[in-house]
Amino acid sequence: MQSADCLPLGRRLFLKSAAATMLATCSARVLPQPRVPRPLLIRNAYVMTMGAAGDLPRADVLVRGGEIAAVGIGLAADGAEVIDARGQILLPGFVDTHNHLWLSQMRGLFGRSPETRYFRLTERLGAAYRPEDMRIGTLFGAAGALEAGITTTLAYCDNIRTPEDAEAALSGLIDAGIRARFLYAGHDKLAPDVPLAIDHLASLHRNRAAWAGEAPIDLGLGWRTPTASAGEAVLSVALEELRRIRAIGLPVSTHISGDSGPDQLDLLISRGLLGQDMVLVHATGAEPEALRAVQDAGSAIALTPITEQRVGFGLTRLKHYTDRVSRVGLGIDGALAGAPDMFAVMRAGHLVQAAVSGDELAMLPRQVLELATIEAARAIRLDSRIGSLEPGKLADLILIDTQALNMGFPVSDPSSLLVYSARPENVSTVMVGGNVVKRDSQLTQIDSQRLVASADRSLGKIRERADAAR
Questions:
Q1: Hey, which CATH number is domain 94-379, 3.20.20.140, 3.40.50.150, 3.40.1360.10, 3.10.310.10?
Q2: 2-16, 233-247, 303-317: segment of lowest average pLDDT
Q3: Model-level pTM?
């Protein structure tokens, strides 16, 4: 198996050169021929389609050409690889609507002292990152996500100081094999009246085929929503960024969070800036009237219960949002949440909803599972391609083995089992676009041990540089 930190140059986007040189080089080089996945037939699974067909207690799914060709009972396919999934639950891969993958090396560092508060520490260590650290952090986070059954992620990359930082992070996504939307943002020290590098993002968009090949990566903007009191210079820069990115036609994600959340949301509403292309992350403090405006504009909300509660934004009441906004999905949000574990996110969200409502049935586990699959896909406007197991959709799917001491198999409806009992280690198989990236509980494209060692070395160098800069 190939080392994660010794990948051939032909598989990397990151080059130690200026952005223009990178684009010219990538345009000239010969990309690998797209690999057509072998047809694959998964038999005898408990199939949770998360779509109109509902649950099929013992059924088959045929994958051909990277897509779901058929879902049913007793399917046949000559020449297909067969996986006997007896005792396993088959469902769509989880969709993570918000994550900061680049800082994955920082896992476990937060909240141990005043100096390790999340925002303070990420600002200090983020300034000490180099492009290779961006690549390793993103790859480390994406690999962990895949291992845990997350097949799609929105990678909000808010530590881009140079074009090479962005290119290196994109390289990590490509090498991981995850489906991703790369959200091009700035960094903590970027003054709000200094524009983001929209030209570089536009160049990456125009030249996507050259650097991405067949990798399932698209692009968007990680926008900085100002407050109404920010001043005209800041507002002018932010509005011009949004105008330019919408002219290109790329989607937008933006943090609406903390004490500034209500004011940020009010600015978006009062200036008519919301739209179907926009995902609001956290939406802290959003009142019902503001959420109705979000719904009227067709915008989406990404909720990250673990990090919202850990950083002190308050309790994430899922139904406060889902009762008022039709496009809502769950997210991990990065290393502050610990490991990328959608089971833990679902569990946290459901527990809080039951506690604040005083009703065990205020929200059913299946509804929470939908927020991590089909509803999350709808939130990021990919529900026509992913989020449910239906013919014609991309074959992003996972198998969860119930033959473990923490599991079990109910007679019907395993949704509660998945939300309250399952863990990432129960995910036996992961497929992205028909490519099997985890088989028999092992990642197939990444040497996990060497990647962990690379992340450890990277973090050590980052901390040394950060300490030296004090």
A1: 3.20.20.140
A2: 2-16
A3: 0.93
